[in-house]
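Fold this sequence, please.
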Amino acid sequence: MGLLQKLSDTEVVAEKKPAALVEDKKVIQKKSNTVGLLKKSLNVSTNDSLDFFEFIKKYSIQYAAFLTRVNNFYYAEYSSGLDGKSIINSVSTVDFWDGIFKNNPEHQRFTNDDNSITTFYQFFSSQLKEKITSLDIFKYNNGILIVCNKKAFSINEIILPEINYLSSFAKPETQLNFTEAIDSFILSSDKAMYKQQLSKALANALYIKLGIGLDKICDLHFVSDGVYNITVKNKTELPFELLSTHLKFDCSYLLEKNSELLTITEL
């Protein structure tokens, strides 16, 4: 399987595993077997709860986002399958979401069958609008989870997301720097005033995409938001020139033509 397919493949189903034991509703920390980068983070009051990324993989969810609240607005701090424009468009007011949850404070469902979904098309790029047929939206104390194109879920199946930046003992050989590409993409939008939050959101989306796509090819090391070191496991499968070309192409889904500003340095 080539790098292009590895990076683009989003529908991976996790293995079934026994539920974690919960005592007195304490936080449970345990390893996830999804991509080796993401771990169990914050637990809730049910033994069957999953972290954000385990949830996506268990149900083969292609499009989802977790919107974090900052002051009087929300943004998609964590996402799966969203392109860069949709992440930019996720910036939205608290008043808007308060209105959405007015009748049901925990869960709302919208579909294109009754046209109720059209209210949310403003958050998706033109290419994603055509692919989104339903939304399940869950309200948490500090955020909002949006799940697309799936049957309704119980809110107790899901817990809040958290990325744990893990690194191996292998010596890093190559550095990927997306910071200029991310900055250029945000500044070319109409949401540049939210640069700090959107930089984090895009960096998270890139890290998740790289972590899933490169898991069997490279060890990925977090340096800072948008900057990652990698160690290639098999240089015959992934030579330096191929790495550069494919990364710029695949990450254009998130950063459009700005992905050409990616800098790749051999350490």
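The first strand starts at residue 64 and ends at 70. Residues 236 and 256 are 29 Å apart (CA to CA).
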